[in-house]
Design brief:
6 helices
């Protein structure tokens, strides 16, 4: 009977813990759809009057609250509380910062295009922006998993 060495046990425990950093396929599908909608906010706000934009703002609040409840319930169900700060994951931090930069520049570009009457160009740009942000999010989660597996996570 061969028993695992202590290092193998630690590696196995890290792999099991890292599995909690992954999200389901359904989560990524919903996230991608919402990213497409959110990336187009400058376009949607340009078409809505004052009362319509208020409904859109409340819809965004509902999406944010649903994401927070999903995160909270997932932690409670699994019993695994991973560090929430991105700075706890050294390799994921750079990917995350690149994603923030892409999102800010892209969202600002969409806003500028809509303000200058280039709505057609904005329609071409916004799905690309949403896809880029989704890919960065998936890469960030993968880097977080690798950091957990390799034991690089800082508390």
């Amino acid at each position: 009977m061969s028993e695992k060495s202590e290092l193998d046990q630690v590696a196995d425990a890290r792999r099991r813990l890292a599995a909690h950093a992954e999200f389901s396929t359904a989560y990524w599908v919903v996230n991608g759809a919402l990213l497409v909608l959110v990336a187009g906010l400058p376009i949607w706000f340009s078409w809505l009057d004052g009362s319509g934009s208020q409904y859109l703002q409340w819809a965004l609040v509902a999406v944010v609250l649903a994401a927070a409840v999903h995160s909270w319930s997932r932690r409670r169900r699994s019993g695994v509380y991973l560090p929430k700060r991105i700075y706890s994951y050294p390799t994921a931090r750079l990917i995350w910062l690149a994603g923030i930069a892409i999102a800010l520049v892209g969202f600002g570009s969409l806003f500028a295009l809509v303000e200058n009457g280039q709505r057609q160009v904005a329609f071409v740009v916004y799905p690309v922006l949403a896809l880029a942000v989704l890919v960065i999010q998936i890469k960030t989660r993968s880097a977080m998993r690798r950091d957990i597996e390799s034991g690089k996570v800082k508390p």
